[in-house]
Amino acid sequence: MDFKLTKQFQKKIELLLESQDYKIRFEKGNFKSGYCIIREKKVIIINKYFTTEGKITALIEIIESINISPEKCSEKNLNTLNKILKIES
Questions:
Q1: Given Cys at both, which of 17, 26, 69, 88 links 48, Cβ 3.0 to 4.6 Å?
Q2: Rounded CA separation 15/12 (Å)
Q3: Side-chain half-sphere exposure of 49, counting CA atoms within 13 A
Q4: Structural domain tally of the chain?
Q5: Does residue 54 lie within any of the structural domains?
Q6: Range of 46's domain?
Q7: What is residue 11's predicted lDDT score, i.e. its pLDDT?
Q8: At what angle do helices 7-19 and 52-65 cross, to 10 degrees?
Q9: Is residue 67 part of a domain?
Q10: Which residues in the chain come in under a pLDDT of 50?
Q11: What is the b/e burial string over 47-74, where b = at least 16 CB atoms within 10 angstroms of the residue's CB?
């Protein structure tokens, strides 16, 4: 694993998703998976009571389920994406 499950890494993942025009909100909710994606509005809602590790895991699952446009990503965002995809493949 090339990264630690820290608040800083969580922020990097959030910036990556924001580069894809997603809005991320942390709220209480009764989501079976711990998160909800409203695709038409590009809104991601994560259970605010999750631990940092749980939030990162949910964000990574979301990244795997959506199409990331590399041309919208900064170099830092691409580095974050590569770290995520390396550990998942």
A1: 26
A2: 5
A3: 6
A4: 1
A5: yes
A6: 7-88
A7: 97
A8: 30
A9: yes
A10: 89
A11: beeeeeeebbebbbebbeeeebeeeebe
